[in-house]
């Protein structure tokens, strides 16, 4: 009866004002982040004349795919570059997850000589500026005949993605109680079975976070792709955007550039919306016991 008759007390006026102020500030920041995305998508569907208008209107009454058609004539065509980016991103995600999951599990649940030192050395590689080792990486890829090769670029991305990924997976596995592993061992489960059927489903948010970071970093990376790829048919979307922004004779095709930006953004936005809840849970995995 007490629960049925319970009436929530109104919040103090100061707390309500603070809450409204927080909402207002959040909306302003959201507007700053969302408006460039909306502007790019809106301009990508405008006719060329309206895309170059000054001042430019946010929306247009005319709907046109002309800007996307012009992207087909940029180098080998945007679909070729998009396919290369998909191959590189998928390969980077797959190899990063396959290596970081067992590595994180090993650092979390096993004890072996030199474990702490090895983990520190792996984390220390995150402090090395990528630009400072471009020359050695180029020589190594040339030595193993993977220069100007999509798989060679995947190996480069995986190498720089692994320290963060191993760190994330170790934290994710640290949050799993050891009692589950001990119970599985009593039932006769092997280490591979424990990892595959018990640990991995529980640590799925961490895996999703690692996969998302690997995808976004490899999808948007520009410098390594520019240096290690010399065949135009193997270029990625970021290189295509630079070619469009440079323009012919210095004239920038703003409509085609906005269309290229839209093509590049769509997979990232879709992936984030699909994995958003796992992403937030994965970032906080292992933060508390």
UniProtKB/TrEMBL annotation:
Protein's UniProt keywords contain Transmembrane: yes
Subcellular location as annotated: Cell inner membrane; Cell membrane
Record key words, sorted: Cell inner membrane, Cell membrane, Membrane, Transmembrane, Transmembrane helix, Transport
Main subcellular localisation: membrane
Residue ranges of domain ABC transmembrane type-1 in the record: 82-275
Pfam families cross-referenced by the UniProt entry: BPD_transp_1 (PF00528)
SUPFAM superfamilies: MetI-like
Recorded topology in the membrane: Multi-pass membrane protein
Taxonomic superkingdom: Bacteria
Keyword Oxidoreductase: no
TM ranges: 20-42, 78-105, 117-144, 150-173, 194-215, 235-252, 259-279
Function summary: Part of the ABC transporter complex UgpBAEC involved in sn-glycerol-3-phosphate (G3P) import. Probably responsible for the translocation of the substrate across the membrane.
Family the UniProt entry places it in: Belongs to the binding-protein-dependent transport system permease family.
Subunit organization: The complex is composed of two ATP-binding proteins (UgpC), two transmembrane proteins (UgpA and UgpE) and a solute-binding protein (UgpB).
Protein name according to UniProt: sn-glycerol-3-phosphate transport system permease protein UgpE
Organism: Rhizobium mayense
